[in-house]
Design brief:
heterodimer, A: alpha+beta, eight-stranded antiparallel β-sheet, 24 helices, about 30% helix, disordered N terminus, B: mainly alpha, two-stranded antiparallel ribbon, two-stranded antiparallel sheet, about 45% helix, globular
Chain lengths: ~850, ~375
């Protein structure tokens, strides 16, 4: 194919596709054929095992060849060609000097390189480019992680492709998987004993130098955690994704040794791999196989990675200058895959673990770039005077304060920018000529709005030199009232370092998960922010579950969009039915009770489609897009990991197939246990005390003095009947109220004469006491004790009366303990003594206990 | 209503028993004449009549029942709250036991007001605070001064939108204010089914109705959701959907009902998990009818689903758990302790059966039976 022909083809391919639906079948068949040819041609050459010199030090001379012939060649040059033609990258081989065909990195003529490169790129789906696949499969990656090279290569090609990928309605071709029945499988037992007796010793002997939290070279996951029983449990949980009980040889622990020669402990990696495999086999042999219930109506099975990739290419990244997607999943480096040199890679230190489904989990550590690499931010942001920090994060809690999530700083008191957390708020600090050297005052999300939640959120902080700062959460503008709007960034310090999850000084810990961070040297617009929010985060797949064998519809599948949700679960969402045969028009298929199975068994939690009751009908089925079954998502627990967990679906009814599902078992009620014996008596509570005193005295509780006093002491009186909670403060309040009632009673001549007929209130003390005191005491005791003498919880009447008599007259024979009446007094004191005697009885347990 | 509860007369004499019954029910000691009358009833073997006599004391209504219900009417579960329409509803329904089954507490278009004082306002509790003051008067007579009316008449909400205590102004102000309306369901569960959500936690329930505001990975750890959150929300959210048209307007200080329009609070934080359930209407479903929570004893004569708060209230009130809860609360209130042993549990079972007999749901008789059971203590 000539250069002209290739250009024409490329231009044809780059026409935006008018495809409204997210999913379409066979729309890229011709393109696929072209790429297949290219792949065949490329695959014929090239050395697979050559090791390039390390990245970062390669030399590339200035380009002195012919000018780019077209705008597209120019775009190719600045986005891809200039990045790959150096002698430490593709230019070392795929050039005239290297002699390796295709010469897409030849330095002598960019137009000729352009003609060559079209066979190895896919501009509509850059991730599917042969260049990406090759570099991602151990073909001369210039970094230590093949997947990172693949990501960077994807970014370069994406940038070249421009609008074709970013905004052009990307289509996805569903690929029919190999049909297989759900297999009986082994499941990890809850007990760690078998693991501890088989695989664990090998891990602790040979892997604990790194894969343990106390290792010299700490490297998560900690499947070689050593020491206590708790350590075994930690190791067990960490190792599950690395072990395939159904195919021990495919276990990651074995593959790393046998095929990737990862830290073998003898001279023979093959022998070490076999030793590891044998221990896993021993482990697996001790685990029973759980068969699939033969009565279930099941679909065909699929793993996550056997699905069709659904993500990628939908984010807006035209001005990204640093990007972290955390795809490596291991190691101590989080790679900057923006493709913008220099790569601002982050070194992970301290309590930071890789997070399943891409991400880092911070719990005290940090991920920090060098100051030299970080200067990229200063250089490129000052060039525009504006920027955006974008992150997908899940704060670990909503109580942490002054916690640094993303920072470009020198310590707690000096920073160029910082996105942080204070409880429910995101804080955004920016250093400008309108702020101090620490970025104060900050812009925060509104206090009462509780914007920040301990869940996955998409956060974008933008700085505009005129409008100032804004914060968007989940695509919504939540803060833009910048207290120090706009300004110049000229004061930024290029000796600061970019850091995640902490301050560079390590004393501003942020707890949570970061799943993506991007730095853009432009203000992202609201549509761009919304686009990136809608694109989501993490690797997504369309997983196809074959059902042709159940309904006799050719190439029929129920398809889920699925992804690894976090370290512990998968997300399944929006199932739809489709046949890959365009000629099929599905109709009249009833579907009820859809459930998700993993590794041979239905999942016990998260079955959000179990109540599904629908029908696939010609009315709703579109041969191009299928028929949506439910606009709903659910999370189900991860078992062995995305590489080996095998999913399938079950149905209570699909077409003519049904399963009679037994009703859930209602467990018998728990046998009630006897409680400790409780007191049979209690105290009156506040209102009861008030009503009782009113009843006993006949005083109106609504009277001014009484109601005021009751209002004062109401909440100091007992609130519950439990006598064991009675406090001295309660007694004080009771006494005050009793005095108030008795005072009101004794001051009311009509009332007191009715209650105590014949008692000489108008006489002096010596006349009234003790001669007439029975006229006072007997009515009081009758009212309070209810003329009941045999209630065990009540005081003996005679004893109570004696106590009151001694209160009035003193204790006989004890000259030190005089009574109230001793010393005599006028009539007013007679009344006072009556009040006191009344209050002593009404404020006692005789009234209080019920 | 007949009572099959057996009572032993061993121990304290009849006068002491009468004294205790009166104190426990009315909260105040009896007058001499009442005590004599009650003592005579007990001597005649009619202890329940003695208890019924004690309940003629106005303090049974103005003190005992008021403080019995007051904690149900606020989030803090404080007894120190002014009298309100929720508390008055409970007082009135007990007063009218025999003609008003207590199951109506969660579904009826019912309100108790002061005779001759007009109707309460929809946007103020002043009416009931005044009533509380009036109750202090020695001459206040609940039997004549507390009369039945309707929420629809007083508050202007449709009859089919009324749901007993749940649509009172007090409950609305406490549980429909802000939030997500789940509080109304939770507190109703606690107050009338005697269980918090932990008691009905079941992770096997189909989670298809959990709303978008519930994180499926709190703090980045989905195990928290799969082991904890899901166990409550899977059952609660489809039930709390019954309140989708209710909101307490803080500005107007009143309950608002918007038939056909789901209130915006049901879409709070809808980006937390976009694939969660989007509430389209007020249709509720009781997923607790299967599995472990079937033990709550749901009525087989009801469908287990419906629309709106009224039918949800009927569903809850028809359960075994509702009846047993009311009886247990009364037992605690009168005996001043929880049931502790098999005789106590047997008594609870017997009283629950009596409570439900003939669908009368006469709560006042449960007070009487409890007082008689505990009169020897």
């Amino acid at each position: 194919m000539s250069t002209v022909e290739m250009q024409a083809m490329t231009q044809k391919i780059r026409q935006p596709l008018d495809v409204p639906a997210a999913v379409r079948r066979r729309s890229l068949v011709c393109l696929g054929a072209v790429l297949a040819l290219g792949l065949t041609a490329c695959a014929g050459g090239g050395a697979d095992t050559e090791v390039n010199p390390g990245g970062g030090g390669g030399s590339v001379s200035n380009y002195t060849g012919p000018a780019p012939a077209t705008a597209d060649v120019q775009s190719f040059k600045i986005n891809l060609y200039d990045n790959i033609r150096s002698n430490n990258r593709c230019g070392a081989c795929h050039s005239v000097e290297g002699g390796q065909s295709p010469m897409f990195a030849r330095g002598d003529d960019v137009n000729l390189a352009y003609a060559e490169v079209n066979g190895v790129v896919n501009l509509i789906s850059p991730v599917d480019s042969l260049m990406v696949q090759r570099v991602g499969n151990a073909h001369n990656c210039w970094l230590t992680n093949d997947s990172v090279c693949a990501d960077i290569m994807t970014t370069w090609i994406t940038n070249w492709a421009g609008d074709l990928v970013a905004g052009g309605g990307r289509t996805i071709e569903l690929e029919a998987p190999a049909l297989k029945d759900p297999g009986a499988s082994r499941h990890f037992p809850d007990d760690t004993a078998l693991f501890a007796a088989t695989v664990y010793p090998v891990l602790t002997d040979f892997c604990s130098g790194c894969h343990a939290s106390d290792a010299n070279f700490v490297q998560s996951p900690f499947f070689a955690e050593n020491g206590s029983m708790e350590a075994v449990a930690v190791a067990y949980e960490a190792v599950k994704p690395k072990i395939d009980l159904d195919d021990p040889a495919a276990s990651r622990l074995v593959v790393r040794l046998r095929e990737e020669f990862h830290n073998c402990w003898t001279m023979s990696c093959a022998n070490d791999a076999t030793a590891m495999e044998n221990e896993i086999i021993a482990f697996a042999n001790g685990v029973p196989i759980d068969p699939v219930d033969p009565l279930l109506v099941t679909s065909k099975a699929s793993t996550l990675y056997e699905g069709t990739i659904a993500s990628g290419g939908n984010r807006y990244e035209a001005n990204v200058i640093a990007l972290y997607e955390f795809k490596a999943g291991q190691g101590n480096t989080a790679f900057d895959t923006s493709g913008v040199e220099p790569a601002m890679n982050l070194t992970i230190s301290g309590a930071v673990e890789w997070f399943g489904g891409w991400g880092l989990n911070f719990s005290g550590g940090k991920a920090q770039a060098s100051t030299v690499a970080s200067a990229k931010l200063q250089d490129m942001i000052l060039a525009t005077g504006e920027y955006s920090i974008e992150a997908w994060i899940a704060p670990g809690n909503v109580v942490q304060e002054d916690a640094r999530i993303v920072s470009y700083s020198a310590g707690p008191d000096a920073r160029n920018l910082n996105l942080g957390q204070t409880m429910y708020n995101y804080d955004f600090f920016n250093r400008s000529d309108a702020s101090d050297a620490n970025g104060n005052p900050q812009l925060s999300t509104p206090d009462a709005a509780e914007i920040l939640q301990a869940t996955l959120q998409h956060v974008v902080a933008t700085f505009d030199p005129v409008a100032g700062r804004s914060i968007y959460v989940n695509g919504v503008l939540v803060a833009n009232q910048d207290p120090a709007p706009g300004g110049s960034l000229a004061d930024w310090d290029d000796t600061f370092a970019f850091v995640l999850g902490n301050e560079v000084s390590g004393d501003r810990i942020w707890q949570g998960v970061i799943r993506l961070v991007a730095v853009h040297n432009r203000v992202l617009t609201e549509p761009q922010i919304l686009q990136n929010f809608e694109a989501g985060v993490g690797e997504k797949f369309f997983v196809l579950f074959g059902v042709e064998h159940l309904i006799n519809v050719p190439d029929s599948y129920i398809v889920f969009e699925a992804s690894q949700f976090d370290t512990y679960a998968y997300l399944f969402r929006n199932p739809f039915f489709i046949s890959l045969d365009d000629s099929v028009q599905a109709d009249g298929i009833d579907l009820e009770g859809l459930r998700i199975g993993i590794n041979g068994q239905e999942v016990t939690v998260g079955q959000a489609y179990a109540n599904l009751d629908t029908a696939i009908s010609a009315l709703n089925y579109d041969p191009l897009t299928g028929q949506l079954l439910a606009q709903l998502g659910t999370v189900v627990p991860l078992e062995a990991g995305p590489e080996s967990d095998e999913f399938f679906l079950t149905f209570d009814l699909l077409g003519g197939n049904s399963y009679s599902r037994p009703a859930p078992v209602t467990p018998p009620p728990a046998v009630p246990q006897d409680l400790p014996p409780a007191s049979n008596i209690g105290v009156r509570t506040f209102d009861e005390i008030n009503a009782t005193l009113a009843t006993l005295t006949g005083v109106n509780p609504a009277g001014t003095g009484i109601s005021t006093k009751f209002g004062t002491v109401r909440q100091s009186l007992p609130t519950v009947e439990n006598i064991e909670t009675f406090l001295s403060s309660h007694q004080m309040a009771v006494a005050q109220l009793a005095i108030e009632y008795c005072s009101a009673l004794m001051e009311n001549t009509t009332l007191r004469d009715n209650v105590f007929p014949g008692f000489p209130f108008g006489s002096n003390v010596a006349t009234a006491y003790p001669a007439s005191q029975d006229l006072l005491l007997d009515p009081l005791l009758d009212k309070v004790l209810g003329a009941v003498s045999s209630l065990p919880s009540q005081p003996e009447r005679a004893t109570a009366k004696t106590e009151l008599e001694q209160l009035i007259n003193g204790i006989p024979g004890d000259s030190e303990r005089l009574g109230l009446a001793d010393g005599g007094g006028p009539a007013s004191r007679t009344v006072t003594i009556a009040k006191a005697t009344c209050a002593a009885l009404l404020g006692s347990a005789a009234m209080l206990v019920q | 209503m007949s009572c099959t509860v057996s009572v032993s007369l061993a121990g304290p004499d009849e006068r002491a028993q009468a004294f205790r019954i009166h104190n426990r029910l009315a909260g105040v000691p009896p007058s001499e004449s009442i005590l004599n009358s009650m003592e005579a009833d007990i001597i005649d073997g009619d202890e329940l009549d003695a208890a019924r006599t004690a309940m003629t004391n106005k303090h049974f209504y103005t003190v005992t029942l008021k403080n019995f219900a007051a904690p149900w009417t606020n989030r803090e579960q404080s007894v120190f709250v002014p009298l309100n329409d929720y508390t008055a509803l409970v007082i009135g329904m007990v007063k009218d036991s025999g003609t008003v089954p207590f199951t109506d507490i969660l579904s009826a278009d019912l309100l108790y007001v002061r005779a001759g004082a007009g109707l309460p306002s929809a946007n103020s509790n002043a009416y009931y605070e005044a009533l509380e003051q009036a109750m202090l008067a020695p001459t206040f007579n609940p039997q004549t001064e507390l009369v039945a009316s309707t929420q629809s008449a007083a508050y202007g909400i449709p009859v089919n939108a009324t749901a007993g205590a749940m649509t009172t102004r007090a409950a609305s102000e406490a549980f429909f204010i802000a939030g997500t309306n789940r509080a109304m369901f939770r507190f109703t569960l606690m107050n009338h089914m005697c269980t918090d959500l932990e008691g009905v936690h079941d992770t096997t329930i189909v989670p298809d109705r959990i709303r978008q505001d519930v994180s499926r990975s709190p703090g980045g750890d989905s195990r928290v959701f799969l082991n904890n959150c899901i166990g409550c929300h899977a059952g609660m959210d489809p039930l709390a959907q019954a309140f989708a048209y209710y909101n307490f307007d803080e500005t107007a200080a009143r309950l608002l009902y918007s038939p056909g329009t789901v209130v915006s609070k049901y879409f709070n934080n809808d980006t937390t998990f976009e694939d969660g359930f989007v509430t389209p209407d007020d249709a509720w479903s009781n997923y607790w009818r299967q599995g472990q929570n079937a033990s709550l004893g749901w009525s087989s004569s009801l469908p287990g689903s419906g629309s709106g708060a009224k039918s949800l209230g009927e569903e809850l009130a028809a359960s075994d758990a509702f009846a047993q809860c009311q009886v247990t609360k009364v037992f605690r209130n009168v005996c001043l302790r929880s049931p502790v042993d098999q005789p106590d549990r047997t008594q609870i079972t017997a009283m629950t059966a009596n409570f439900r007999a003939g669908n009368a749901y006469n709560l006042r008789e449960v007070f009487a039976q409890s007082a008689v059971y505990c009169m020897d203590e």
